[in-house]
Amino acid sequence: MTQQCTATAKSTGERCQNDAIKGGTVCYQHGGAAGQVQRKAQERLDKMADETTADIQADIADLQAEYEAAEDPDTKVAILSEMRRLWKIILDRTGHGPTEKREHEHSGEDGGPLMVIERGSDE
């Protein structure tokens, strides 16, 4: 969800209809391009990410306690599944998301070399 720019036009007094920059309160044209505005916006985004990660880690700790107390195997599997989902969210949000690995063998006359292609989230 994007936030609307909070700037107003001097000529009409109406609010700008553009989206604010991510983490900011104004659009690019109303100061969002300035270095200090972009730095402050990034600080807000980093703070939100840290708080969200801390909340998710607390949820994982609660689930760990539930897992240790559970006796039913199906309940344990469900709890582990939820823990995995939460860890995936943390990894994806911190730039350590999924990596893809594909192996391909050439089927020509000579058998060809094995080719391995790895693609991480940093591409």
Number of beta-strand segments: 2
Taking pLDDT < 50 over at least 5 consecutive residues as the criterion, the unreliable ranges are: none
Determine the strand fraction and express it as a percent band: 5-15%
* Strand order in space, largest sheet: 1-2
Number of helices: 2
Computed over alpha carbons, the radius of gyration is 24 Å
The residue fraction in helices comes out at 40-55%
Overall, the morphology is elongated
The sequence of SSEs as H and E is: HHEE
Largest sheet: 2 strands, antiparallel
Classify the secondary structure makeup into a structural class.
Answer: mainly alpha
Calculate the mean pLDDT score and round it.
83
Termini Cα gap: 25 Å
Description:
- By secondary structure, the chain is mainly alpha-helical.
- It is built from 2 helices and 2 strands, in the order ααββ.
- A two-stranded antiparallel sheet has the order 1-2.
- The longest helix has 35 residues.
- It is elongated and about 70 Å long.
Which properties best describe this structure?
elongated, about 120 residues, 2 helices, mainly alpha
Quick overview:
The protein is mainly alpha-helical. Helices cover 46% and strands 10% of the residues.
Question: In terms of topology, how is this protein built?
Answer:
Blueprint (H helix, E strand, L loop, with lengths): L34 H35 L3 H21 L6 E6 L8 E6 L4
Antiparallel strand pairs: 1-2
